[in-house]
Amino acid sequence: MARTLFVTALAAKSGKAEAVAGLLELIKGSAKSPVLFRPVPCLSTALEHINSGKGNALIDDILASWKNACAESDFVLCEGTDFAGNSPALENSLNACVAANLGAPVVLALSGEGASAAEITATILTFQCGMKDKCVELLGVFLSGMSEEDEKAVASSFPFPVSGKAEAFASVLDKCEGHITPRLFEFGLIEKAQKHPMRIVLPEGEEDRLIKAAAILIERKVASIILLGNPEKIHARAAELSVSVEGAEIIDPVNSPDFEDFAATYAQLRAKKGVTIEQAREKMADNTYYGTMMIYKEKADGMVSGAVNTTAHTVRPALEFIKTKPTASIVSSAFFVCLKDRVNTYGDCAINLDPDPEQLATIAVTTAETAAAFGLEPRVAMLSYSTGNSGKGPTVDKVKEATRLAKEKAPDMLITGPIQYDAAVDAATAKTKLPGDPVAGRASVFIVPDINTGNNLYKAVQRSAGAVAIGPVLQGLRKPVNDLSRGCSVPDIVNTVAITAIQAQAEKGLN
């Protein structure tokens, strides 16, 4: 990902053009192919989108254009709006929103003409607080129109450069490394899924949320959708919900021409378990079993279920006859937890009750691979109630052994453990509890010792931080089958289908 820096202002005639020109020349000294990018080329068009309720579409368009710029460059300098309109507060909010979604730090262009050092200091502090609320880092202020003495007085109040000279900002260029924001992550999911549409079967096809999600997925061409259920009921309910599922394949399992073949195949696969053809027909009358058999028979590429059914009901058929990959000893799960400014990965919070050290090590490696497959840099924290050698007990010993085994399995993986959550996420705490550790304070993948810890952890983070949890994503199966929370929303379903499609692409070598 290209380094990105966002230059913005608070009003017209703030010296933004001079700041952009100076910074671009400075960047050329350290980047091979820098590019200047204007996320909002036309303010009036952007405001029309916002006023008509199409703000999300506007951000998606900006992200797409920015990704194109990144593909051609190693440093993208973003220039905010010109504040030529009548709503400077709205422009400021728009610029902050764009920077936040790009994961870009900011340099503020500010004119101090006619203002005192104290007034300018207060303005910068207010701006900094506003950026912090949006999880945007202020890296410096390009200050013009002030005497050298006043400029120094303002600069003395801040740890970052405050100057009218571009060379003063050389130190901030290394702080412009991009990271995956939640919006970028979700945008990337849809974009990847759209490249090679996969056939995804939704067994709970008569449920309202699935019908709404199917309509979105069809409209956005994220996947080829297969709904299981009564076609008349599904179309009637879609009409009542004012959505269209035209374009989806709708199959009523018991009336399907494949029903007898699927039942016979299941009876054959489970013959050693004593399954009769009558019992096989009963299983295939269950939408989840039928959908899983569609994957086995290569009539679908993946399945998403669980909005109504339990995790066990979703996973059991896959364990019976999809089976695990040759490289995976167990099936486990991962959640992508989208915070305000970043995306973390948690495993295993849904499948394995109390994994032993060998299983926990496998979960750690597999979850790190899952994170990397979706564009997230894995820095793995093996969570425990103690950090380093500070505690003793069976659970700590299990995590220590699992960490050792995980390092053997993946020697190039960044991993540390045992480590407490605070030391894993907070840099100041990490310096005290585990100084010098490459993961402590900046972990992105969190491996829990058991399902009790994991299920409560991800839900606590989700609820207390207002985060979006995507998953659980199942890991280790030969074909992608993913589970939904019974409390899932329509966007949750859309994202999970996109993830399943991407997994199916990977299984076919299409990524």
Automatic annotation (TrEMBL):
Alphabetical list of SUPFAM superfamilies matching this protein: Isocitrate/Isopropylmalate dehydrogenase-like, P-loop containing nucleoside triphosphate hydrolases
Family annotation (Pfam families): AAA_26 (PF13500), PTA_PTB (PF01515)
Transmembrane parts of this sequence: none
InterPro entries xrefs: P-loop_NTPase (IPR027417), P_AcTrfase (IPR004614), P_AcTrfase_dom1 (IPR042113), P_AcTrfase_dom2 (IPR042112), Phos_Acetyltrans/Butyryltrans (IPR050500), PTA_PTB (IPR002505)
Enzyme class per UniProt: transferase
Gene3D superfamilies: 3.40.50.10950, Isocitrate/Isopropylmalate dehydrogenase-like, P-loop containing nucleotide triphosphate hydrolases
Domain Phosphate acetyl/butaryl transferase: 189-501
Keywords per UniProt: Acyltransferase, Transferase
One Gene Ontology MF term: phosphate acetyltransferase activity
Isomerase as UniProt keyword: no
Pathway(s) per entry: Metabolic intermediate biosynthesis; acetyl-CoA biosynthesis; acetyl-CoA from acetate: step 2/2
Record PANTHER family: PHOSPHATE ACETYLTRANSFERASE
Protein name in the entry: Phosphate acetyltransferase
Gene source species: Mailhella massiliensis
Gene for this chain: pta
